Amino acid sequence: MKKIAMAVATLAALPAFAWPDLTVTYLEPEITVSPTQDIQVWVHVESSTPIDASLGAPFGFDPQDLPKTATLFGGNTPISFASYTGLSVIPSWGCSPTCDIAGYDRLDWFPGNTNPLFGNLAGSRVVNGDYMVAIYRPKADQPPSGTFTVPLIASLQFNVKGLSAAGTELTAYIGPIGGFAACSDYTLDTCGMKVTVSAIPEPSAWALMALGLGVLLAGTRRQRMV
Strand pairing of 104-107 and 129-138? Predict the structure, then answer.
């Protein structure tokens, strides 16, 4: 019983973080495409307050939320920050359970593209706007029709840079677990971009459509002749 009481007390003492009002949301939560169309995954990034390394510490975060220590690569001893010198913005994405979609090739590299890319947010500040994350291109045999959820979840993550009292350069993560993501906790059950791939009409359907169009045109010609 004492152990349980101690655990509850420890959990109650955990600090509450005051993260910035920063959201990453799907620009089009639901779309319909033909089997020959690309699926473009876009997100909208919006921060109600500036997040920028040029502002100086705390860079748009709450001062109390800045990491107090960092661990050097390969080490296991935390080193305290004596000062904070910079902020890195890290656009990233994860997939659940895989990034692949049956019948599509995923493109992460877009030569000649002029659209604003999510990956270009990498730097020292957050810029509000719409960004393309990825393109899913239909394979030659064309994807099957139906509705599915794109398994790719975009997120923005941040690293704080600084110095120890001895002048050692330090870097530590800041932000919620998994970053500021389009789907909280990387769960697609209640969040995700849903895509409906329309079915290609069968040859018999095309024939019926052509017949209907022919009847319609013939009727129009008769009306003009009367």
Answer: antiparallel
Q: SS3 of 184, please? A: helix
Task: Tell whether pTM > 0.85.
Answer: no
- Cα distance between residue 17 and residue 64, in whole Å: 8
Residue 40: its H or E element: strand 39-47
Lowest pLDDT segment from 35-49, 95-109, 193-207: 193-207
Does the residue 134 lie in any domain? Answer: yes
Task: Give residue 59's identity as a one-letter amino acid code.
Answer: F
Place of tokens 């947010």: 121
The whole domain housing 98 covers 19-221
Q: Is residue 70 part of a domain?
A: yes
Domain count, the chain: 1
- 12 within domain boundaries: no
User: Hey, which residues does 80 pair with through a beta bridge?
Assistant: 69
pLDDT in tens, 118-170: 999 999 999 999 999 999 999 988 888 999 999 889 999 999 999 999 999 99
pLDDT in tens, 63-76: 999 999 999 988 89
Residue 226 domain flag: no
Nearest CA among 75, 6, 51, 77 for reference residue 160: 51
CA 59 to chain centre: 22
Q: Which of 66, 61, 63, 67 is nearest to 49 (CA)?
A: 61
Residues listed for the chain = 226
